[in-house]
Specification:
Blueprint (H helix, E strand, L loop, with lengths): L2 E7 L2 E7 L8 E7 L2 E13 L7 E7 L20 H14 L9 E11 L6 H15 L9 E8 L2 E4 L3 H6 L2 E7 L4 E11 L1 H29 L13 H19 L4 H20 L6 H30 L14 E5 L7 E7 L2 E10 L5 E2 L8 E2 L1 E6 L16 H15 L11 E10 L4 H15 L9 E9 L9 E5 L3 H6 L2 E7 L4 E8 L6 H25 L13 E6 L5 H5 L4 H9 L4 E4 L4 E6 L2 H15 L7 E10 L2 E7 L2 E6 L20 E9 L5 E4 L36
Parallel strand pairs: 5-6, 16-17, 27-29
Antiparallel strand pairs: 1-2, 2-3, 3-4, 4-6, 7-8, 7-9, 9-10, 10-21, 11-12, 12-13, 13-17, 14-15, 18-19, 18-20, 20-21, 22-24, 23-24, 25-26, 25-28, 26-27, 28-29
Helix pairs in contact: 1-2, 1-8, 2-4, 4-11, 5-6, 5-7, 6-7, 8-9
Length: 733
């Protein structure tokens, strides 16, 4: 039976429909937010999968029909998920994942199909609500609900789920998600907002999240079904005791080694000894063998995690001996690569990133084919994480979800300091290559990419640095259990910690946030402390970056394309392009294959490696669009001579007619008596008729005879205002 639930929320209307569509799924809802419609479904496997992780998959399926478009691919159908769809799927996954019990191994798949989009009513947050509700009303054990909202800020006022127009005017683009009790996911971009403002925005968003969670609870109470019994993974107590007795004390010593690789080698040696022992034993069947081996690996990892967390929480000792607010050794360099447009390297401890910036023409922009209003992108930041960066052998190829996510985070962090297209009409691509990683490579990529942009001569507004903060708690964040905020977390602290909180920004304020947690949520006090600690760390990192490059280079590099930009009258664009592109192609051919972009508003941008070639092409275009003005003087070549006058080239394709009467002060019978083709003479513009024809005079530049008397000009047919005039009429007697 179909059930419908409605909620007025921040000036828009949520409608949830259940019981009619996708009834074979474990849970399904059709969620409407005004005209945005998303079908969210959830299914769970009957049996657990072998492995040591929770197999959750979240999909965000963009259907182009939702915005009245046909896909731009060759097959004209949706294919691989767009970058936006991938990022949105991650956005939904992150607050949902911590809400499943430890030891949950049954496979769960959530599919969000976006079927209709009102751009002013966020399909992303609609899908997040739908995902939570589909799980909540199903028999899948889920410790929700969760919800998410977008927060903008216009004229100092916070807005929940802003419209497209409000987003354009906003200096904040924040997504905050969580439960009724706490925030458990943050994704934000901001135009250099201070920490207090950002904290207020987070709390403002969480207040809206609470209302959505309470509404979901009402729906779940009314139509939700009883949760099924799921057997959670539990290791064999005897195996756990045996491994603990044999390895715990030895692992404690290994964990105290400073160097990452040495520490890992010591840990591996202990673990391999025990793994080989259990692997060599005889078992009833292969399934039992595999089950025990998973148990051994998980128990060993649990011992390492337990010791790392104990040292940090109780003794404030980190695996590498640092203080809780201490940053690893820093190094910054620029101009590593001689032929690229800009390059830089940033090293923080055993995390190292080389970033390269490339400048291209307007036509090199990325074309966007998704459900957002964005059509093109002139600023791109890409992140690559090869397996050698962690000393492993692994897959190489197209970027995975993590690489796309980290690239987007860097792109957002730096977007607020990237100059506008009007200020710097280049397409900008920066690629961060992770060469070595021991935690926080995404923030190292932001630091390296910022310096790379500066080295390439991109006039960014301010220097951006980033840091990753961590959290180790001894229990729930209820004020009774101690916790520790860590600055600049390394791989071990990230893997075994409770929070990964990335903060990037300038001296003035924050430009990007990203928070993922493994616990149910974090409080305002934790966020405030982490932001304050991150503020100091970012300042320290910027000082190191400034020693490598203090400000953007005044011009682009030797091997980067040079550029000039100017505007022409919109009505003149057709003349510059010419029939079938004839005119502009001629300019390109004459100017060493110069690259020319002309926008619909008349903005012209010219790119070439040689500045002289750019100036040549610019002058040719200016000559085409230029209009003569009465009183202007020119020195031009005579291109044609007729009895009634001479045609003189002024500029571009413009010629002026100098009537025979204007070639000199005396009477001239024929223009050829005074000038011939190829002569260069000075002329002055004396008239421009309504058809744009230009008339010029030469006699002002010749010596005027004494006692000169003006004589009537010889009337020529071409000079008569009325072309039908044949002379005096003759009447018959």
């Amino acid at each position: 039976m179909k059930r419908v639930f409605e909620l007025e929320f921040e000036g828009k209307k949520f409608v949830v429909e259940a019981g009619e569509i996708a009834k074979q799924a474990d849970g399904a809802v059709l969620v409407r937010l005004n005209d945005t419609v998303v079908l969210s479904t959830a299914c769970c496997s009957d049996n657990p999968k072998e492995g040591d992780f929770f197999p959750l998959t979240v999909g965000y399926e963009e259907k182009q029909y939702a915005v009245g478009k046909i896909p731009g691919s060759f097959l004209r159908r949706e294919g691989r998920a767009s970058e936006h769809a991938t990022l949105t799927a991650r956005l939904i996954d992150r607050p949902i994942r911590p809400m499943f019990s430890e030891g949950f191994r049954n496979e769960v798949q959530i599919v969000n199909t976006v079927m209709s989009v009102d751009q002013d009513c966020t399909p992303e947050m609609t899908a997040m609500l739908g995902s939570s509700l589909a799980l909540g009303i199903s028999d899948i054990p889920f410790d929700g609900p969760i919800a998410g909202v977008q927060v903008g800020r216009v004229n100092g006022q916070f807005i929940i789920n802003p419209t497209v127009a409000e987003k354009e005017a906003s200096d904040l683009n924040l997504t905050v998600a969580g439960t009724k009790e706490a925030i458990n996911m943050v994704e934000a971009g901001a135009d250099q907002l201070d920490e207090d403002t950002m904290l207020d925005a987070l709390m403002f968003g969480h207040a809206a999240v609470k209302r959505l969670c309470e509404w979901q609870e009402e729906i779940i109470k009314e139509i939700g079904v009883e949760k099924r019994e799921i057997e959670l993974y539990q290791p064999d107590p005897e195996v756990v005791k045996d491994i603990t007795d044999r390895a715990e004390e030895r692992l404690k010593k290994a964990i105290s080694i400073f160097d990452k690789l040495e520490r890992q080698d010591a840990i591996d040696a202990i673990e391999n000894e025990i793994i080989e022992d259990y692997d060599s034993r005889k078992y009833e069947d292969e399934k039992t063998h595999q089950k025990i081996m998973h148990m051994v690996n998980e128990t060993l990892e649990g011992l390492v995690a337990k010791e790392v967390r104990r040292l940090i929480t109780d003794e404030k000792i980190r695996p590498d001996g640092r203080k809780v607010d201490e940053i690893r050794p820093l190094d910054a360099q620029v101009d590593l690569l001689p032929r690229v447009h800009g390059s830089a390297m940033f090293t923080r401890g055993q995390t190292q990133v080389i970033s390269v910036t490339t400048l291209g023409a307007k036509s090199d922009e990325q074309i966007i084919d998704n459900l957002t209003p964005e059509e093109t992108r002139h600023w791109m930041h890409h992140y690559n994480f090869p397996p050698y960066s962690v000393g492993e052998v692994g897959r190489m190829g197209s970027p995975g979800r993590r690489e796309i996510g980290h690239g987007a985070l860097g792109e957002r962090a730096l977007s607020y300091v990237i100059p506008s297209e009007e200020e710097f009409p280049y397409t900008i691509r920066t690629v961060a290559e992770v060469c070595e990683s021991n935690g926080s490579s995404s923030q190292a990529s932001i630091c390296a990419s910022c310096m790379s942009l500066m080295a390439a001569g991109v006039p960014i507004k301010a220097m951006v640095s980033g840091i990753a903060m961590g959290l180790i708690s001894s229990g729930p964040l209820d004020g009774k259990h101690p916790y520790t905020i860590l600055t600049d977390i390394q791989g071990l602290e990230d893997h075994f910690g409770d929070m990964d909180f990335k903060v990037a920004g300038t001296e003035k304020g924050i430009t990007a946030l990203q928070m993922d947690i493994k616990i149910k949520g974090v409080t305002r006090d934790v966020l405030k402390e982490a932001l304050a600690q991150a503020h100091d760390a970012r300042a320290q990192i910027r000082e190191v970056m400034k020693k490598a490059i203090a400000e953007p280079r005044p011009d682009v590099g030797k091997y980067a394309p040079k550029m000039d930009t100017f505007k022409i009258d919109v009505d003149k664009i057709r003349e510059v392009i010419g029939t079938g592109g004839k005119v502009i192609n001629d300019i390109i051919a004459k100017c060493d294959n110069v690259k020319i972009d002309i926008e619909d508003d008349g903005q012209v941008t010219i790119y070439h490696m040689n500045r002289d070639v750019i100036n040549q092409a610019k002058q040719m275009i200016l000559d085409i669009v230029r209009e003569a003005k009465v009183g202007e003087d020119f020195e031009g070549e005579v291109t044609r001579v007729e009895d009634y006058g001479a045609f003189v080239h002024l500029f571009g394709n413009v010629e002026g007619l100098c009537h025979v009467s204007r070639l000199g002060w005396g009477y001239i019978e024929n223009a050829s008596d005074v000038v011939k083709v190829g002569d260069r003479i000075k002329v002055r513009v004396i008239e421009i008729d309504d058809k744009g024809k230009v008339k010029v005079s030469h006699k002002e530049f010749t010596e005027k005879p004494e006692n000169y008397t003006e004589r009537p000009a010889k009337i020529e047919h071409h000079d008569r205002p009325d072309r039908s005039f044949k002379g005096p009429r003759k009447f018959k007697k």
